[in-house]
Amino acid sequence: MDELIRIESISQYNTAMRLETLHPLVTVIDFSKAQQIQQMRRYMGLYTMFLKDVKCGDIKYGRNYYDYQEGTLVFIAPGQVIEVENSGEYIQPKGWALLFHPDLIHGTSLGQHIKEYTFFSYEVYEALHLSEQERQIVLDCLHKIDFELQHAIDKHSKTLIVTNIELLLNYCVRFYDRQFITRSNVNKDILIRFEKLLDHYFQSETPLLLGLPTVSYCADKLNLSANYLGDLIKKETGKSPQEHIQLKLIDVAKEKIFDTSRSVSEVAYELGFKYPQHFTRMFKKSTGYSPHEFRNLG
């Protein structure tokens, strides 16, 4: 196992890149000006965005190659580990990076809404692939942040820096929406696999072993991050994965309830509920009837 390097401050990262630290809580890096580095495993205590200048056609998603070649954006939230195999060779990285410490955004609008930028918890293979126009917009935002870092710190600095970071992230929300649309065929395939996964889950004895299916469980089986699966399904259907799971649960429950050889409690346990009263409450909220009332309708 390669050594794990912990990066918990801007100065630590800049020192590793042999670059000057202009602000203790945020940095913009042009990797063409950085020293050659060795690849290694890093624990990141910072919000990080990498703009990689690589040919994205070399990156595969399942059986499909990405079709955007102008640049790739990868987002990393504090607490994540960057897994890169250490070949022992020194390389010259290409592209740009924005890193900021959570302390930078405390007490700001961005700090209040940072959890809404769910792509910080996407997997690397769920990266954002930019058109040339989108790439230029990202670079323009980075240049504006860098301009403020080059400027002497004054009472306006934090507001302007954080505002430009928020603007950049809002553009990335738009670009991800575009990517979900342009990958509609891939998304529909994921939806079909998601439905089949739920069917198989409830047809097996898995609920007795694991309980109710979770979004994390489904995402793991589909080789996706939970946030990416959630955003994809919400954009495709207007419903969250949790809502889909509940709808599937109620459909299966309706079939099982009409089997009078089972008690309502047995049905609840078979579906993965620990407590039958929780099942009864959910069923009535969804259908307007208790399980016993629904059974009597038949």
TrEMBL record:
<protein>
    <submittedName>
        <fullName>AraC-like DNA-binding protein</fullName>
    </submittedName>
</protein>
<keyword id="KW-0805">Transcription regulation</keyword>
<dbReference type="GO" id="GO:0043565">
    <property type="term" value="F:sequence-specific DNA binding"/>
</dbReference>
<dbReference type="InterPro" id="IPR018060">
    <property type="entry name" value="HTH_AraC"/>
</dbReference>
<dbReference type="InterPro" id="IPR020449">
    <property type="entry name" value="Tscrpt_reg_AraC-type_HTH"/>
</dbReference>
<dbReference type="GO" id="GO:0003700">
    <property type="term" value="F:DNA-binding transcription factor activity"/>
</dbReference>
<dbReference type="InterPro" id="IPR009057">
    <property type="entry name" value="Homeodomain-like_sf"/>
</dbReference>
<keyword id="KW-0238">DNA-binding</keyword>
<keyword id="KW-0804">Transcription</keyword>
<feature type="domain" description="HTH araC/xylS-type">
    <location>
        <begin position="192"/>
        <end position="297"/>
    </location>
</feature>
<dbReference type="Pfam" id="PF12833">
    <property type="entry name" value="HTH_18"/>
</dbReference>
